[in-house]
Design goal:
Radius of gyration of chain A: 29 Å
Structural class of chain A: alpha+beta
Helix content of chain A: 40-55%
Radius of gyration of chain B: 17 Å
Order of helices and strands of chain A: HHEEHEEEHEHEHEEHEHEEHEHHHHHH
Number of strands of chain A: 13
CATH topology of chain B: Rossmann fold
Strand content of chain A: 15-25%
Shape of chain B: globular
CATH architecture of chain B: 3-Layer(aba) Sandwich
Number of domains of chain A: 2
Strand order of the largest sheet of chain A: 4-5-10-7-9-8
Order of helices and strands of chain B: EEEHEEHEHHHEHEHEE
Oligomer: heterodimer
Chain lengths: 388, 228
C-alpha cells in the first residue's frame, strides 16, 4: 500500500493518454456488463424451480413440425406423468410488424402446469367463457395500454384465417401476473389464446399441437418419463424428442441463435483490441520512464519490486476502467430494459458477472503489463542513466 | 585506521559487440571516512565508471571493492540493491527527480524501502528538506523549482536515509555559477558538519576546490593525487 501513491502518480504522469486509454477500457467493460446481462438473460430462460418438473415434447425433426393431438391422451397414460398440456406458436404483431408479441394458442389446462403465472379467478372464468379471449402478461398490457375488456387487432406472422386474412381480433379477458421473479421477463410479455379457437379458425395444422408440456410427479423420474414418452412415437411419422424445460429452451435458443457464442465472439474481439491498446500505452509509459525507473533501482528498489510496480500500474489501469465500466452498466441495464418496452428483460449485473469481469481485468492487466514490466526489471542502471 | 573505501586492482572492461574496451586499468585507491574527494579527468577517462563501481551500480571485471569493511564486488543484484538503499546516497547531474511527485514525496522515496511508518517518513523527509533549505518548497513539483533547488531536493533525497557515503556525478554540471556554489557549499557542510564521505565527479576545477582531495583519471588510470 505504501507504494500506491507512486504507482498512481506514475499512471497519471501523462494525463491525456491515460484518460483516453481509461475511456476505452470503460467502454469495453460497459459493453461486457451489458452483453453479459444478455447472455445471462438467455441462459436463465427455462431455469425456474417449477421448470424442473416440466418436460417438453416436440418433433424430433424440427421445432416447426407439429404433433398429433391424439398423442396427448397416450402421454397421460405414461407412469409418472401428472398432467399433460399442449400449445401452438401463434406469433402475432400488434399494429406494427415491429411490435412482436410472444403469443401461444394453448389448451384449457395450460395454466395448471405453469404456477409461475397467476391469473385471478374472475379473469380465468372470463377467459374460459370467451372464445376469442386472450390472457396478456402484465408488462405487455402496460406496454400497449391494454385493459380487460379491450378488443385488440393482431396480425399473425404465419397463420391466416379461413378467408386467407392474417388479421385476427381478440378480447382481453384477463391479466397474467408473474409469481417467479427470474422468469418474470418472459411471462410478463406473454399472450395466451385458446387453442380451440386457433384450430377452428386457421386452415393450417388442423388437430395438431406444436408441442406438449408434461408435469411429472417426481423430478427424479423425469429422465425415465421422457424416454417413455418418446417410446410412444418411436418408428412413427411423428417421432418425438422430450427434454427438460431448461434443455428444451436452450435447444430452441440455439436454433434461433447461439447467444453465448455471439457474446463471447464480440467480447473476444473487444478485449483483444483493448489488450493491444492498453499494452501500447504501458509500453510507451515505461519507455518514457526509463530514467526514472533507473533512479528507483539506483536508490535501492530491487528489480522484482520495479517489476511489481509496473505490473500493479497496468492492473490498476484495467481495474479502474473496468470497475467504472461495469459500474455504469448497473444503472444502464434497467434503463435499456425499460426503454425496450419490456421486449428485453435484462437481469442486473450479478455477482458472477462481477467476478468474471474482475478476473478479466486482472488477467488483461497482468498480460498487458508483463512485457513492459519485464523490460523494467531487466533495465541496466548504468546504461539507462547514461541514456544509452 | 581502516579506510571507508578500499579498492584493489580494479579493472573494468565493457564489451561493445565483438570489441572489448578496458575503461579502468588496475586501480588501487583508499578513501578515508569523512573524506570529500573530487574525481577529475577528461571525458572517457573512466570517472563515472569508477563512481558507479564504488556506488554499487556496476560490478568490476577484476579486483575487489570494499565499502565500510564489506566486499561489494561479489554481491548479487538483490543484495547490492539492499546495500545501496542503506549505505549510499546518489546525486546526479540532471537531478533525476520524479516529475509527478512533490519535493517531499521525492525525498521520501528511499524511505519507502524501510519499515518506517508514513508519519515517520514524512517527518524525516521534512528534516532533510529543511537541512537543504527547502522546507517551504515541500509541496512543489520539480517543474516548479529552479535547477539549483531541484539539485538540493536530490541531495535531500540522497541523505534522507542517513548513508555514510554520498556519490555525486557532476552535481553542478547543469547549474549556473551561483546555484553551483550553493550546492557545493551544501555538500561541504554535509561533509564537515555531518561527517558524510563524499565522492564527486566533476569537470570543473572550481567545484573540485570544495573537496579536500582531488584525484585525476586519465585513460582509466589514476595519474595524480593532490591534497587540497
Amino acid at each position: 500500500m505504501k507504494y500506491l501513491h507512486l504507482i498512481w502518480a506514475s499512471l497519471f504522469r501523462r494525463k491525456t493518454r491515460t484518460i483516453l486509454t481509461l475511456v476505452s477500457i470503460v467502454a469495453a467493460f460497459l459493453l461486457f456488463g451489458l452483453l453479459d446481462a444478455v447472455r445471462v438473460s438467455f441462459a436463465q430462460a427455462g431455469q425456474s424451480a417449477n421448470g424442473a418438473q416440466r418436460l417438453q415434447t416436440g418433433s424430433k425433426l424440427s421445432f416447426i413440425q407439429t404433433l398429433p393431438q391424439s398423442l396427448g391422451a397416450r402421454m397421460q397414460q405414461v407412469p409418472g406423468v401428472k398432467t399433460v398440456t399442449y400449445a401452438n406458436w401463434f406469433g402475432g404483431a400488434y399494429q406494427d410488424p415491429h411490435n412482436q408479441v410472444f403469443s401461444f394458442a394453448v389448451a384449457p389446462n395450460y395454466l395448471d402446469v405453469y404456477p409461475e403465472m397467476s391469473v385471478s379467478d374472475v379473469d380465468r372464468k372470463t377467459f374460459a367463457d370467451t372464445r376469442t379471449g386472450v390472457l396478456v402478461g402484465e408488462g405487455l398490457a402496460r406496454r400497449f395500454h391494454w385493459k380487460v375488456g379491450d378488443r385488440i387487432p393482431m396480425q399473425s406472422t404465419i397463420f391466416p384465417d379461413r378467408s386467407g386474412s392474417k388479421n385476427w381480433v381478440f378480447d382481453v379477458s384477463g391479466i397474467i401476473h408473474s409469481t417467479d421473479k427470474k422468469a418474470a421477463g418472459f411471462f410478463d410479455q406473454l399472450m395466451l389464446l385458446h387453442w380451440a379457437y386457433f384450430d377452428d379458425t386457421t386452415p393450417y395444422n388442423r388437430g395438431q399441437a406444436g408441442w406438449y408440456v408434461t408435469r411429472v410427479a417426481d423430478v427424479n423420474q423425469a429422465d425415465r418419463v421422457a424416454k417413455a414418452i418418446d417410446a410412444l412415437s418411436a418408428n412413427s411419422d411423428h417421432e418425438t424428442r422430450t427434454l427438460t424445460e431448461q434443455a428444451a429452451t436452450a435447444n430452441w435458443m440455439k436454433q434461433v441463435a447461439d447467444i453465448g457464442l455471439i457474446v463471447t465472439s464480440i467480447m473476444g474481439a473487444v478485449f483483444f483490441t483493448l489488450m493491444l491498446l492498453s499494452g501500447n500505452t504501458m509500453m510507451q509509459a515505461v519507455r518514457e520512464r526509463t530514467g526514472e525507473l533507473a533512479v528507483l533501482k539506483t536508490i535501492g528498489f530491487s528489480s522484482t519490486s520495479v517489476l511489481a510496480m509496473v505490473l500493479a500500474e497496468s492492473v490498476l489501469l484495467l481495474v479502474l476502467g473496468g470497475v467504472i465500466g461495469i459500474g455504469l452498466a448497473e444503472p444502464l441495464i434497467p434503463l435499456i430494459s425499460h426503454g425496450s418496452n419490456g421486449m428485453l428483460s435484462l437481469p442486473p449485473v450479478g455477482a458472477s458477472s462481477w467476478a468474471l469481469g474482475v478476473s478479466l481485468m486482472l488477467a488483461i492487466g497482468v498480460l498487458v503489463g508483463a512485457l513492459p514490466a519485464w523490460s523494467a526489471m531487466r533495465l541496466n542502471i548504468v546504461d539507462a542513466l547514461a541514456r544509452r | 585506521m581502516t579506510p571507508l573505501i578500499e579498492i584493489r586492482d580494479v579493472s573494468k572492461i565493457y564489451e561493445r559487440g565483438k570489441q572489448k574496451v578496458e575503461v579502468l586499468h588496475h586501480i588501487d585507491l583508499d578513501v578515508a571516512q569523512g573524506q570529500f574527494l573530487a574525481l577529475m579527468g577528461p571525458s572517457g577517462s573512466g570517472k563515472t565508471t569508477l563512481l558507479n563501481l564504488i556506488g554499487g551500480l556496476d560490478s568490476p571485471s577484476g579486483g575487489s571493492i570494499s565499502v565500510g569493511g564489506q566486499r561489494i564486488d561479489n554481491l548479487g543484484a538483490g543484495a547490492l540493491a539492499k546495500w545501496r538503499a542503506s549505505r549510499v546516497g546518489f546525486v546526479f547531474q540532471f537531478y533525476n527527480l520524479m516529475p509527478m511527485l512533490s519535493a517531499q514525496r521525492n525525498v521520501e522515496l528511499p524511505l519507502l524501502l524501510t519499515k518506517l511508518s508514513a508519519g515517520e517518513r514524512r517527518k524525516r523527509a521534512a528534516i532533510a528538506l529543511e537541512l537543504v533549505g527547502l522546507a517551504d518548497r515541500a509541496s512543489h513539483k520539480p517543474a516548479e523549482l529552479s535547477g539549483g533547488q531541484q539539485q538540493r531536493v536530490s541531495i535531500a533525497r540522497a541523505i534522507v536515509s542517513d548513508p555514510a557515503l554520498l556519490v555525486c556525478d557532476e552535481p553542478t554540471g547543469d547549474l549556473d555559477r551561483q546555484s553551483a556554489e550553493d550546492v557545493l557549499t551544501l555538500l561541504r557542510a554535509l561533509n564537515r558538519d555531518h561527517g558524510k564521505t563524499i565522492l564527486m565527479v566533476t569537470h570543473d576545477p572550481k567545484a573540485a576546490e570544495y573537496a579536500n582531495q582531488t584525484l585525476h583519471l586519465d585513460k582509466g588510470t589514476l595519474v595524480e593525487q593532490a591534497a587540497a
